[in-house]
Write a structure and sequence with these properties.
The complex is a heterodimer of chains A (423) and B (602).
Chain A (H helix, E strand, L loop, with lengths): L6 H14 L15 H12 L3 E8 L22 E3 L6 E3 L3 H4 L5 E7 L6 H10 L12 H9 L9 E4 L17 E3 L15 H21 L3 H16 L9 H11 L3 H15 L3 E7 L7 H25 L6 E6 L3 E2 L11 E2 L3 E7 L6 E3 L1 E2 L6 E3 L4 H11 L7 E4 L2 E4 L14
Helix pairs in contact in A: 8-9, 9-10
Chain B lengths: L13 H9 L2 H8 L7 H4 L3 H13 L4 H11 L11 H15 L10 H13 L5 H9 L5 H10 L2 H15 L13 H12 L4 H10 L11 H4 L5 H13 L18 H11 L2 E3 L4 E2 L2 E2 L3 E3 L5 E3 L13 E3 L37 H9 L7 H14 L19 H13 L4 H9 L26 E2 L2 H12 L1 H7 L15 H8 L13 H9 L2 H4 L7 H7 L4 H13 L5 H11 L5 H14 L1 H4 E2 L1
Antiparallel strand pairs in B: 1-4, 2-3, 5-6, 7-8
Helix pairs in contact in B: 5-6, 6-18, 7-9, 8-26, 10-11, 12-16, 14-15, 15-16, 17-18, 20-22, 22-23, 25-28, 26-27
Classes of the chains: A alpha/beta (423), B mainly alpha (602).
Chain lengths: 423, 602
């Protein structure tokens, strides 16, 4: 077991371990998804140092008020288009900053998914699968933590900031469970040890004796998991400062826009820079069954401001090309505007966007029909979407993990990787 | 998947039709795959079995003698009746499977190991220091059997079993308004266990749902599925019969025998239920389940073939056995109000389809009911169902010990669903009383060759911590009583529930993560390790006995066993230091209260 050691030492030792242990993948357990080729795969991907930030628009952002305008059509709504820095591509006037960074984005205007309600949709767009009675599918964050994360890091590899989804690590096992920060990115309850370093080390020495002794003749997985999670919780103490970003926020408040979502995105950028493989930031309120236009007018500007800043910030730090930004909610919104000026749930044709690592910029993929009622061209299902995201990060979407004795691929069986949008 | 049958689909509300219509063929093509099912090709590759074999090889040479002793012992008939006791039947089948799979079992559990296991399994709490020492010092050869018999009469038996079964029926986050506060249900269930009401009787009461949710309790099960007969159908078939019908909700089951008509035939029994609000009783709202005389499940066919405006046809109730329900005809001009009056108990219907379903489900002739129960109860104590997962008795998911499951099922029926007898036989088997130590990584060994590891529930942890730290004595010494069993000063049940409420991933694999340890390392466990009068800390600090004896007391009270010599040595060295002795004592108690050995029932 690890002794208590200061952070600077740890970092250098970690890089040493990384260089010398070719097969050191975490969690090689049968029931927790350990499959030989799957772990080799994990090592391969990790060498590429890919990261992912998911911007989650909870409730379902309207494609008509963001990236798929139908100006002049009965379904078009009240906003105007704006031109972007990509000739011919026009998006909603609510996103002027993103419009100027359109050359960094790939927009998919032809999403068609299968779950139209929030719980089902949130599950679907976090795991890539519909709920099933006997299989606990892992979230995208757990998958990326497994394949892109550093198993030796003191930092958790799957962080959520005020977002949704409760599938967690599913059959991948507890080492890939999300670590949830508070609404402003603060550490969760009980993250701080009440003991001084010396006292903590004293207590740990005794506990370490007890655990090591028990492990001598108790080899069952849960015991090992329990021991390892204790170690991770303890190591988190070493990196507590990584999460202390109040001062950083003062410096970047302006850049990201003075908003909750801005703060969350800045934290995501800093955590990714510190080595966290996957960070999910959430913004709620998009379920605009009433007052859709007012709703989007208040939600989109701070989000797009922060998103633009995030892109700039990652570029300035040289991280943009290795960090895939995924922008999506669980559903789209109806073409028809209801009698409360709202739009309801719609999954027959809607929009998501990608930016950064592994995907081309300045591209619109797929098309909806003139009223946005149906996909006209290049339909993208949830299976296709997740397969493409994994491929962009260097992960083969057909890689199998085991749920009990069943091999389950990362993305649905019949997926199609959209090669056109990959670099 | 191709659909040969005509289109069917349930239509419960206009909104739902609309949603389904919006998502047409292509949308469902994506979701149609039942991802639970490996294809034949995939199923051929089963590394689980390979690795179990490897595991087994390593265990092989341990106890050839024990094995033969067991085999001989197991066939000894019960002298009085001349009939083989169930516990012996269990051991005979389990040992036979060891032999045919070349598995060597672990040693029998030590006295202390057995004691802690059986306390947690029956009472949901570790034994007290006094209970532990009394049992360990008892020299009677039949002390284990006596202990089991005694624990069945313990007031905590009903309480703990109702906690366990409440999770079966509700889980931590049940659907439905008002289902979070279900003391009525839990108290009722506690009584059923305490009085040893036969399982088929109380299961039938849950399904008949008479009275209200506060005073009678049982109706709470249906409150979860208000206006959702399809959801109720899925839950009831799964929980009471171990049958998975959910695939047949949208299309004929791809590999089981169930068709959509089976699904909607069952849903038709439940389509007339209403959750009625009859006002507050105490501080809870009481809900009875009303039954209408009219109302059908409408059915339009596979979801794939759904079309706008398609109304479908009413489906008649049909049992999963294939028999139709014979029900009296209503007069042609029969009319009734659309809704029940709130605030009043709904009147009894002329005929209750729900009661007919309840009677069919819980009948001893039902091919699934007793089998599902025998398997589920076996899994509760042995870790893994003979069919696993326990709620899927599909032919695609065969039992590991088919003859044993048959025997358990038949004896449960023969003994009229007497749970204390049934559980007692399991606990008295040698298979249950194996040690948890040994090689092999499985939490739930495939052939029951050693004891399983089960994480303690949030309730078990809290109550066991309180007992281990002596906090219950602290409260007693200062004439305080916790207001309720889960409301203990210094502990926030909400945090506990969040950190330990769902220790498994939903299919039974342990999933304790980072948050759990943040709670253990930095959270409220500290508060329980009080040094006030009555506490373990105070007793050890005040004692003038040699440290060796005090360490023994510490181990007996927290881990329900005596320490090994090297443990005594290490703890004595740690505790006898002059530097901050009180703090060190706190560390030692904390260590044992948070270690793996405490965290699991093994």
């Amino acid at each position: 077991m690890r002794d208590f050691c200061p952070r600077h030492e740890h970092l250098s030792r970690r890089s040493l371990i990384k260089g010398s242990l070719a097969t050191a993948a975490g969690g090689t357990l049968m029931n927790w998804g350990g499959l030989f080729n799957s772990d080799v795969m994990a090592e391969e991907v990790k060498k590429r140092n890919k990261r992912c930030i998911l911007i989650w628009l909870n409730g379902g952002c309207s494609q008509f008020e963001s990236f798929d305008m139908k100006v002049g059509r009965p379904t078009g709504g009240i906003f105007r288009e704006t031109s972007t820095n990509v000739p011919g591509t026009r998006i909603c006037e609510l996103m002027p900053k993103i419009a100027q960074r359109m050359d960094k984005l790939t927009v998919i205007r032809s999403m068609r998914t299968s779950q139209i309600d929030h719980p089902g949709g949130i599950y679907l767009m976090h795991t890539g699968w519909s709920r099933a009675a006997n299989t606990q599918f892992p979230e995208i964050g757990a998958i990326i933590a497994k394949y892109c994360g550093d198993a030796h890091s003191d930092l958790p590899n799957f962080v959520k900031i005020s977002s949704n989804g409760d599938a967690g690590s599913g059959f991948l096992g507890p080492q890939f469970q999300p670590f949830k920060l508070g609404r402003d990115g603060e550490l969760p309850n009980f993250s701080t040890s009440p003991l001084s370093e010396t006292l903590e080390a004293r207590r740990h020495s005794l506990r370490d004796f007890v655990e090591s002794k028990y492990a001598e003749n108790h080899h069952a997985d849960p015991v090992r998991m329990h021991r390892e999670a204790y170690e991770r919780a303890r190591r988190l103490n070493n990196v507590r400062d990584t999460f202390k970003l109040d001062a950083e926020w003062e410096n970047y408040r302006e850049k990201y826009g003075n908003s909750k979502i801005g703060r969350r995105m800045m934290i995501a950028a800093r955590l990714v820079e510190a080595g966290v493989a996957f960070v999910e930031v959430g913004q709620s309120g998009y379920d605009t069954h009433a007052d859709n236009f007012e709703g989007h007018k208040s939600l989109i500007p701070p989000m797009e401001h922060a998103w633009a800043a995030l892109i700039d910030d990652l570029e300035e730090r040289g991280l943009f090309d290795d960090t895939l930004i995924v922008w999506m909610g669980e559903i789209g919104r109806t073409p028809n505007i209801n009698n409360r000026s709202g739009r309801d749930h719609y999954v027959r044709s809607w929009t998501t966007a990608l930016a950064g690592g592994g995907v081309k910029g300045g591209l619109v993929y797929g098309e909806s029909d003139e009223d946005g009622r149906d996909v006209k061209d290049n339909k993208v299902t949830e299976g296709d979407f997740f397969a493409t995201v994994y491929t962009a990060l260097g992960i083969d979407p057909a890689t199998e993990n085991y749920s009990g004795v069943r091999p389950i691929p990362l993305a649905q069986f019949d997926h199609r990787v959209i090669k056109d949008i990959l670099v | 998947m191709t659909q040969k049958q005509p289109s069917w689909h349930s239509v419960m509300s206009y909104a739902r039709i609309l949603k389904r219509v919006i998502m047409t063929l292509d949308v469902f093509a994506a979701s149609e795959e039942c991802p639970d099912v490996p294809t034949a090709n995939q199923a051929e590759r089963l590394p689980a079995q390979q690795s179990t074999k490897a595991e087994n090889r390593s265990m092989k040479r341990c106890h050839p003698i024990l094995m033969s002793v067991l085999l001989v012992a197991c066939v000894a008939p019960d002298v009085a009746s001349g009939q083989e006791r169930l516990r012996d039947v269990i051991d005979r089948h389990v040992a036979a499977a060891w032999e045919s799979n070349k598995v060597t079992p672990a040693d029998p559990a030590s006295e202390a190991e057995f004691l802690r296991r059986v306390y947690l399994d029956l009472l949901g709490i570790i034994p007290t220091y006094d209970e532990t020492t009394a049992f360990l010092n008892d020299t009677a050869p039949d002390k284990r059997e006596k202990l089991i018999a005694r624990l069945f009469d313990h007031p905590r038996y009903g309480l703990h079993q109702s906690d366990v079964w409440d999770m079966v029926y509700f889980g931590r986050n049940p659907p439905g308004y008002g289902t979070r506060d279900r003391d009525g249900f839990k108290n009722w269930l506690k009584e059923q266990f305490a009085k040893n009401v036969p399982y088929n009787v109380w299961a039938r009461d849950i399904l008949r749902a008479e009275g209200n949710t506060v005073e009678q309790g049982a109706p709470m099960f249906f409150v979860q599925y208000k206006n959702a007969p399809e959801d109720a159908t899925q839950a009831i078939t799964q929980k009471f019969l171990g049958v998975q019908l959910q695939c047949a909700r949208c299309h004929d089951h791809p590999f089981d025998k169930w068709s959509q008509l089976d699904f909607y035939g069952t849903a038709a029994f439940l389509a007339r239920l209403r959750v009625v609000d009859v006002g507050n009783k105490g501080n809870l709202t009481a809900y009875p389940i009303g039954v209408k005389n009219l109302g059908d499940v409408m059915f339009t066919g596979p979801v794939q073939q759904d079309e706008v405006g398609k109304k479908g046809e009413p489906v008649k109730p049909k049992f999963l056995s294939g028999d139709s329900l014979a029900e009296p005809e209503l007069p042609e001009d029969f009319k009734e109000d659309r809704n029940f009056k709130s605030g009043q108990m709904p009147p009894k219907p002329k005929f209750s389809r729900k009661d007919a379903l309840a009677d069919w489900i819980t009948s001893e002739n039902n091919p699934y009911f007793a089998r599902a129960a025998a398997n589920r109860i076996w899994a509760q104590f042995m870790g893994k169902g003979i069919v696993h997962p326990v709620d899927n008795l599909s032919p695609e998911n065969p039992p590991s010990h088919p003859e044993l499951l048959d025997a358990l099922t038949q004896s449960l029926i023969d003994h009229k669903f007497d749970l204390k007898w049934f559980v007692g036989e399991i606990l008295n088997s040698k298979a249950y009383q194996l040690s948890a130590s040994g090689t092999g990584h499985a939490a739930k060994p495939r052939w029951y060759e050693r004891a399983r590891y089960r994480p303690l529930s949030a309730e078990e942890l809290l109550e066991s911590w309180v007992r281990a730290s002596g906090y219950d004595q602290v409260l007693e010494a200062s004439n305080q009583k916790p207001e309720e069993r889960l409301k203990i000063r210094g502990i926030t049940w909400d945090y506990l529930r969040r950190s330990f409420g769902q220790p498994s991933d939903g299919v039974g694999n342990f999933h304790g993560g980072l948050h759990e340890h943040l709670y253990l390392n930095n959270g409220q466990v500290r508060q329980l390790i009080s040094d006030r009068p009555g506490s373990l800390h105070e007793a050890l600090a005040k004692s003038e006995a040699p440290w060796e004896e005090r360490v023994e007391r510490l181990y007996l009270q927290v881990l329900s066993r005596k320490p090994m010599p090297d443990e005594v040595e290490r703890f004595v060295a740690f505790l006898s230091s002059e530097d901050d002795p009180r703090g060190r004592l706190h560390d030692a108690i904390w260590t044992l209260m948070t270690c793996s050995e405490f965290r699991f029932n093994h």
